[in-house]
Structure formats: structure tokens, C-alpha cells
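C-alpha cells for chain A. Residues wanted.
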């Protein structure tokens, strides 16, 4: 008799827990905080960031939003900062705060004549500080000069390249 009473109480507890589990939307997220569940998935996205005029243009074939980051497929970003137009194309990218981690074919260009191509492991672009970090082979072009490197960092604001395994062709104006 006591065993039946115990199993009846246990069955009501399991049913009650199941009801709470399925009725509260973020219960699983609180129960397993490291679970990376997509919050939103959107296809063919075009977005404009507007201040007093259009400041940035974003386009992606797919965006997957998580609680702590956004993932993009076929990303295109065009933004104007301090009078310079920046354009970033990537096959795959992850936005976490002001940092964009791009993989696959990565291409960056700006209106100052800088072109940056990254491959394989990808590129990290810090939009706030305007730094590119190439995790693998990259090519940097400025006007007619071409630099190749195994990995390195490029400061977009100041035009300073710090690279490992660098080789390049430099063209200067004759006086």
C-alpha cells in the first residue's frame, strides 16, 4: 500500500514537472544555459542603418540570431565612417558585439583604395577600432602596391600593417 502511494506521488511530480517544462518557454534555456538555441532565422535580409542619412547597408542570404551572436551566410556590409566608405563581403560570418569573424572568401575594400582578401581560416574585423586580423593567408592592396602574408593585422585608420611571412610589391611616385 505504501509503495502504491509513493508511485502515485512520484507520477504526479513527473507530470507536474513535464507541464512546467513545456509551458515555460525559457525553462530549457535556464536549465541548460550553455545550450545555443537559435532565437530567429531569417532568409534574404536587407537592412539599412539610418542616422541623419543612411550610415550602413547590410545584406545577407541568411541570418541566424542567437542570444549572444548573429551568424550570416553570404554577407555584404557597406558602411560610412569618418568620410570613408567600407565594404565587407564574406561567405560566412559571425557578429559578436563589434567584432565580425568571417570565413571562406573574405573581401574588404574602402574608398581610400585599400583592398583586403582573406582565405581559409578567415579574418576578424573589429569594427569599433577598425582592425583586421588575418588568421591565415591574406592579400592587402593599396593603390598599386600589393602585400601578401601568412597572418597579420592591418590598422585601417592609420594604414599600418603588421604581418608574418610578408612579401610585396611597392610602387612609389618619382619626384
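Reply:
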Amino acid at each position: 500500500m505504501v509503495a502504491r502511494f509513493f508511485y502515485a506521488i512520484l507520477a504526479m511530480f513527473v507530470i507536474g514537472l513535464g507541464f512546467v517544462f513545456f509551458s515555460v518557454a525559457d525553462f530549457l534555456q535556464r536549465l541548460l544555459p550553455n545550450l545555443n538555441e537559435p532565437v530567429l532565422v531569417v532568409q534574404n535580409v536587407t537592412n539599412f542603418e539610418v542616422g541623419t542619412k543612411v550610415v550602413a547597408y547590410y545584406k545577407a542570404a541568411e541570418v541566424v540570431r542567437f542570444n549572444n551572436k548573429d551568424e550570416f551566410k553570404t554577407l555584404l556590409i557597406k558602411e560610412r565612417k569618418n568620410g570613408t566608405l567600407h565594404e565587407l563581403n564574406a561567405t560566412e560570418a559571425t557578429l559578436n558585439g563589434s567584432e565580425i569573424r568571417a570565413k571562406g572568401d573574405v573581401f574588404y575594400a574602402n574608398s581610400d583604395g585599400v583592398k583586403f582578401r582573406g582565405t581559409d581560416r578567415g579574418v576578424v574585423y573589429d569594427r569599433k577600432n577598425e582592425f583586421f586580423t588575418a588568421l591565415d593567408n591574406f592579400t592587402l592592396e593599396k593603390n598599386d602596391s600589393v602585400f601578401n602574408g601568412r597572418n597579420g593585422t592591418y590598422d585601417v585608420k592609420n594604414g599600418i600593417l603588421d604581418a608574418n611571412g610578408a612579401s610585396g610589391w611597392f610602387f612609389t611616385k618619382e619626384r
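The first strand starts at residue 40 and ends at 50. The helical segments are 2-23, 27-31.
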